[in-house]
Specification:
single chain; 360 residues; alpha/beta; Rossmann fold; 3 domains; 5-stranded antiparallel sheet; 5-stranded parallel sheet; 29% helix
Length: 360
Amino acid sequence: MKEIRKIIAKYDEYTELPVSMALASVVSVEQSSYRRIGARMLVCSNGIWEGGISGGCLEGDALKRAQIAIFKNKCSIVTYDTLEDDENQIGVGLGCNGKIDILFEPIDISDASNIIEQLRTIANSQQPRVLLKKISPEYPEQLGNHCLVEESDINDIPVDFHRADLNTVIKDAFRKGRPQILKRDTAAIESDILVEYIRPETNLVIIGDNYDVNALIGIVNELGWNIFIVGRLKKMNKYMTEHAHGIFEYESLQELSSDRFTAFVLMTHDYNWDIKLIPEILKKEHFYFGMLGPRKRLQKIMGEDSLKSLQLDKKLHSPIGLDIGAETPEEIALAICSEIISVMRSRDAGFLKDREGSIH
């Protein structure tokens, strides 16, 4: 979501200027690639761009292709194929041994439903969406046509997107949180459809007000998550208050709203407050709950009469973070964020070199 917000900001910056724009989006990937489906890059006719579709190897060529799309005012798809590891095939050294389809869409700023405005709708909501997009270059008049689908009403789909199997694929995308491509299966169907799940921003609630909170804020800020801090306001420094989307005293934790895209990190360094706050956190909706401290401390907390029935060993990540040998506050913060991401993506956080098959 951070990249989407940066693209929207760049779009807003240039809409009042005599500059045309196009959006380059990864819509299909085979084998290996640095970025996956949903990676985006906004390109302006003056050569300024925001976002990215690779690790840097495609952006130069994509800049030219996007400017061609702007000049012709027509969508196009370009395939970058290095499965044979032949950089002369496309003129760039992809280096990933993959096949990537990039959709280039000129942006009509007068169209209130253009793709950037659709992304703005998603960015301004805390609800997930599925973005449907037609991606078959054989039907250029259909290429790039898109619509947004809300989880609460997957039947509200434009007629030109209707497919007998589309609802099932959309439900599956919402359930798994992953993109899918619905292929044409009859001559009567005019386009493949990208079914892209776009999750809202992650909310991180940091409960604590000691100096180590600063290190966690620094990494979370780079990730683009929303930060909420619960603690003693009089102990919070300027760095904390400047980066927080919301600040709450310990006693007002119940006033903080959360959802299934919220993670809680308990780092008060105060045993008594942890005992009081754990039941309150467990009442709130969240996908992750971690607590700072050694295993002995967790065992002691679990032995408290008021907490014995809560099965904290199954609901609480403690000791918190991945086992990377973290020692400094910054390393501990990195370990915490890495564990949150692994839970978010439903992945076992091992070494990629030990993973069989695709790393994505």
